[in-house]
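Notes from the 1:1 (GR / supervisor)

We went over the backlog. Supervisor wanted to see one worked example end to end before approving the batch request, so GR pasted a single chain during the call. The sequence is below; no edits were made to it. Supervisor asked that the structure be written out right there so they could see what the output format looks like.
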Amino acid sequence: MTMDRAELIGLGAAIGGHALLLALLVFGLLGSEEKIEERQAIAVTLEGEGTPLPVTSQIGEAEPAPEAAVLEEAAAEVDEAAETADSKADEAQAAEADAKRAADTAKAADATAAQKRAAKAAAAKAQRKRKEAAAAEAKRKKAAQEAKRKRQKAARDKTARDKAAREKYDRDMKKALGGSNAPSATAKRKAKATIGGQIRIRGCPPGLEVEKIITRVSINLNKNGSISSLSRVTQSGKTSSNAPQMAPIKRCVLNSIRASAPFRGLKVEDYESWKSIRIAFKVS
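Structure output shown during the call:
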């Protein structure tokens, strides 16, 4: 098949153009410092039958470098580990808080138990002290009753001794005087009442508990009822309150007795019965 001149010229131009283009490409790859522009990715959407949603992909998308994938995975692991560590720290902190609360509760429980033990011990001690106090009070009352009984017995014994002494005195006097002139106990009592009724205790100084002071005096008389002497002066009923008044009361009683003499109404024939009379005086 032969070509006309026009076709030959066109073919030559085409061959020359391709040769020029090839030369430019070779020259550009070997000598040019410019980089070949990266191919742009082409977005393609594939829709298959029966697929309700499109599946999209990028053609020409570069695969990530292995190092980047490792770093991303490591970063993800670090984040996960950090989250885990934070979570564990929170759990640990919560556990420590729970432990502290438990310790505080246990400590409070121990303190309460200790207080209860102390209170129980104190209650037991108080009960023991109450029993001791009750026993001591019972002992005190028993001692007081025993002391009262002894005082009463001593008073009865003294009364019996005094009576025996008076009776002996009467017998001795009767025996000494030959019987008929012996002082009569009845006459003595009457004379004592007569003399005591004429004595007025006056001018005694007041004071605390002076009414407890008892002054006993033996009044020795002459036949005319005058005082020959005052003897055997004793006092009882002394307290811490009336102690300063003891001596003044004594002087007051003796002066009052002297001021009341001579005594009247005494029978001379009974002189032996009243020549010595012992009387107890109390200041009211």
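Supervisor's comment: Helices lie at 5-31, 66-177, 185-198, 246-260, 271-274.
Batch request approved.
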